[in-house]
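Can you make up a protein sequence with its backbone structure tokens?

===
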Amino acid sequence: GDNIENGIEIFVGPHGSGKTTTLLKVATNYVVQKRKSVAIITSDVNKVGAIEHLRVYSRILNIPVYIATGIQDLQNKIYDLDAYDNILIDTPGMSLSNMDELDFMRAISGLSSSKPKHVHLTISALTKTSDIGSIVKRFRVSNFNDVIVSNIDQTSQHGILINMQEGLGVVFHSFGIGSDIVDGFEYASRERVLDLIFKLTKMNGEKAHGDTI
């Protein structure tokens, strides 16, 4: 749940998992609700529009965005930005199917800072249930601490949360709801996880059986 006070948070995950939007939601929460000083670093230099997307919102929030080209540059910027309460780091979407990407993720887990470091694996709730296990296993190389589930409002797969929690033993950090940067975010309390599982289960049941429930 909501247990990260100050520190570095790194968002990792497959292509299209909602990392950038999720990062902006967390940034907004810190700036608006918690009055913290925040800086964003992105190492996602290939995705068209990603940096511009970050810049638009960072201007609204009045927080800086830095671009890091490679791990060493990222490490240097982390040191340079030590005065900020929270440093949020966006990474490129990866399938982790080649050595370069695996090396990059290993290096992410080795970044150092004077502050606590936290890695969030972001997974879209629209991901095929059969793919989730392999995504979680591949991303273990990043030493992620917890999972953020994006697009939770768009799924009817109740199994996704149960599988992740029981089958894969992951800890949930938060849920992304839609693309609204201000309201589309909530921390994952135990109650909320259960509530979502029940809601999605009920929804699924209704979809499957019409009005027979």
User: Anything to note?
Assistant: The radius of gyration is 17 Å.
